[in-house]
Amino acid sequence: MKSKVNSTECLILSAVRFAANKHRNQRRKDAEASPYINHPIELANVLANEGGITDPVVLCAALLHDTIEDTETTREELRLSFGDQIASVVMEVTDDKSLKKAERKQLQIEHARHASHQAKLVKLADKICNLRDIATTPPADWTTERKMEYFEWARKVIDGVRGTHPGLEAIFDKTYRMKDKICDHLEVREHENATAACPIYEANGSAP
After folding, report:
1. Is 70 designated active site?
2. pLDDT surpasses 90 at 203
3. 3-state secondary structure of 42
């Protein structure tokens, strides 16, 4: 006896399958080079299980949010596979890779407050996941300073979406405070460097 299949579940599973195929040869930048698909899946998990989001448009857009930006996927391909609404949300959170990185990052800050409610939810989840990754499994070649810079930039982006979802914003704020551990590490390193740079004096105060 066949059971009824939930159309929402089918849509979300289709998005997982689509994203997994598109990102199949990509890896994250952490030391273990974890599969890239872990990232969009984690976004959907944060939205659904931490934020209580059930809107299939938001969940699918989260799963697909990097397909246009980081793979050969086109908006038309997404539109044909998932409809105009999901494709539009994905486009809202997609950077224009033809621009320089600094310009793209500034545009994210400027555009955040003007994004749709659904795009703002995806943006919140993306920044939560990225900060968690940077604090626990950062890119292997990132310096402490670069980690700190990303935390500060992410805060500026999220400041533009405040009022979207208090629960997810609280989760972001809690995650942002993980920066303190990174800051403590930087201060320890600076102290060690300063100590190493100081001349060593003998007991009578004369230089060796």
Report:
1. yes
2. no
3. helix
Query: What length is written for the chain?
Result: 208
Nearest to 40 by CA among 62, 58, 9: 62
Whether pTM exceeds 0.90: no
Provide the β-strand partners of residue 30.
Answer: 139
Domain 7-197 has CATH 1.10.1740.10: no
CA distance linking residue 147 with residue 176, whole number of Å: 11
What's the burial of 54, exposed, middle or buried (CB within 10 Å: 0-12/13-18/19+)? exposed
Catalytic residue of the set 30, 42, 66, 69? 69
pLDDT digits (tens, 9 = 90+) for 18-47: 999 999 999 999 999 999 999 999 999 999
State the average pLDDT for the chain: 90
Token pair of 195, please?
């100590």
CA dist 17 and 120 (Å) reads 24
Alpha-helical runs (H) found in 113-178: 117-136, 144-159, 166-176
Among candidate residues 70, 141, 159, 184, the one labeled active-site is 70
Q: Tokens at residue 141, please?
A: 């070649």
Q: Where are the domains of the chain?
A: 7-197
Residue 69 bears catalytic tag: yes
Give, to the nearest 10 degrees, the angle between helix 7-22 and helix 38-45. 150
Distance CA 29, CA 154 (A): 18
